Amino acid sequence: MKLVVAGTGYVGLVQAAVCSEYGHEVYAYDVDQSKIDAFSTGRADEIEKFVMEPGLSNIIRETHGKSLFFSCDLKSIIEGTDAIFLCLPTPSNLDGSTNLTYFDSAAGQIAEILAKRKDKRRIVLVSKSTVPIETVRRLENIMKKHGVENFGVASNPEFLAEGTAVNQARRPDRVVVGCDHEEDFKILRRVYSQFIHHVRIKYIETTPETAEAIKYVANTMLLTYISFWNGVGAKLGEKISNVNIDDLRLGVTADDRISTWGSFVSNGAGGSCFGKDIASLIYQLRRLNVSTKMLEASYEVNEYQKVYLVDRAINEARFKFNNKTVAVLGLAFKKHTNDMRDASSIKVVEALLGKGVSQINAYDPLANATARQEFDPSKNILFEKIKYFDSAKEAIQGTQALFISSDCEEFRGFSRTIEDTVKPPYLIMDGRRMIPDYNELVSKNYGYLAVGSVVRCPA
Ligand code: UDX
User: Could you tell me if the CB of 271 is within 6 A of ligand 1?
Assistant: First the structure.
């Protein structure tokens, strides 16, 4: 089939690459010429300047020029297309509503060109971005307004998690397709033919609005589950010294109905979806006069979770941040990515600067470059206090405290490096419970403060 993927961010590029791998002829379109130029090289270093996703550049290297093509010229690629996937950014407005500027603008351009196409075959406009429920009608209206003929609209949300997106796109747990007409379902069945009647993959056909809603309910439920563990399970471990959070997790998740994913207590969940989607669903439900108390609690627990270890350091470990040098390790929102969208580290750094630290030594194996942009001193003069390091060991040198803010594997079993590099009095704030053998450090007079446990400090 001939497919166009409009928007080459994480979602679009993975969709384009994996569809090209399955033998479709795929045209990935973006307004940003520099991205298109970089992707067209097929080189990992160029591709990863924009999208860093394990396995993705390998597919592009194999398929570009054969079944995958990149273009900034929508007009030249649209003839003969069976489906256009809209994979546009849908950021949050300040009030939590979704900003549909990119979506509308791409839909408008597509409509203008489709209205003049010579080939009048059925074409499906598929929304893959997370968009407010009923946005599919907005898409339909834009097409109608421009006089596009013989088209259908569909919602086909993506559920990819960063870092594992390629594998998940190759073998998703489910494919959700929402259409109004059988002929559109048929087109999408051909696009996803490898997933139909698969023993393990659920192929779900429904209305477009239900498909849109599935994405919101899934993401807000996942975040609520994380918030439940952070807001209830972790708190029991932090207040009652004989409650062991790791055993608590094992015991509770031994029940098949309760998932292990999400039960790992942390200094908050970040990423491109959770915060934005819950804010948007709150906004959508309020407009329908539905109580949003539950979602608000889940959102608030998560936001406070990002900074509360700094508060606990002051109140429970009696640590004074003023004029101290503190290392922040793990800047991306999780391991295996350079993405810092909604990352807990942003809130941590702001909180530490607010408490008067003299310097922050920052380190992430992948996200130092992203961090330099995120913490651009022209946005906030205090960001000048952040210095960047190429290893965790170098970053902790000369510090009086460290904060582990993501789950990078290299921080696990980090105690030896700490012992060899910095001497007590020293406070370790562990937002991801990455140091299981902390007792040894405590016995050598290091202070240890972890999410889910009571503070362990020398008397
Ligand atoms: C998420 C959803 O998983 C995906 O289905 C959706 O399409 C997009 O949003 P992603 O943002 O890539 O994917 O990250 P994910 O792996 O889900 O982690 C989100 C955050 O939750 C991370 O900060 C992670 O560290 C945190 N997390 C995850 C926890 O704090 N505890 C856990 O047990 C699991």
Answer: yes
Give the residue extent of every domain in the chain: 2-206, 217-303, 307-450
In this predicted structure, the answer to whether residue 458 has a pLDDT above a threshold of 90 is no
Ligand 1 midpoint to CA 114 (Å): 37
Pick the atom of ligand 1 nearest to 263's CA.
33
- Evaluate: CB of 330 within 6 angstroms of ligand 1: no
Mutation probe of ligand 1 site: the residue of 228, 272, 334, 408 with most atoms within 8 A of C-beta: 334
Is any atom of ligand 1 closer than 6 Å to the C-beta of 305? no
Atom nearest to 344 CA in ligand 1 = 23
* Atom of ligand 1 at shortest range from CA of 274: 9
Please give the number of the atom of ligand 1 that sits closest to the Cα of 268. Answer: 30
Q: 31 vs 4, 53, 70, 75, 106, CA distance in Å?
A: 14, 21, 11, 12, 9
Taking the centre of ligand 1 as the mean of its atom positions, its distance from the CA of residue 271, in whole angstroms, is 7
Which residue among 53, 260, 266 has the greatest number of ligand 1 atoms within 8 angstroms of its CB, and so is best to mutate? Answer: 266
Radius of gyration of the chain (CA): 24
Query: What would the pLDDT profile of 177-203 be if each residue is shown by its tens digit?
Result: 999 999 999 999 999 999 998 999 999
Residues 6+ apart with CB under 8 A from 244: 237
User: Using CA atoms, how far apart are residues 358 and 356, in angstroms rounded to an integer?
Assistant: 6
| 277 exposure class (CB count in 10 Å sphere: 0-12, 13-18, 19+) | buried
- pTM higher than 0.85 for the full model? yes
Mean pLDDT of the 329-358 span: 96
Number of CB atoms found within 10 A of residue 346's CB: 19
Element of type H or E holding 143: helix 135-145
CATH of domain 2-206: 3.40.50.720
Report which protein residue has its CA nearest ligand 1's atom 33.
Answer: 262
Antiparallel, parallel or unpaired: β 359-363 and 386-388: parallel
Give the Å distance between the CA of 226 and the centre of ligand 1: 9
pLDDT digits (tens, 9 = 90+) for 374-412: 999 999 999 999 999 999 999 999 999 999 999 999 999
Superfamily of segment(s) 307-450 = NAD(P)-binding Rossmann-like Domain (3.40.50.720)
Asked if the domains at 2-206 and 307-450 fall in one CATH topology, the answer is yes
CA end-to-end distance (rounded Å), the chain: 69
- 217-303 in CATH: which number? 1.10.1040.10
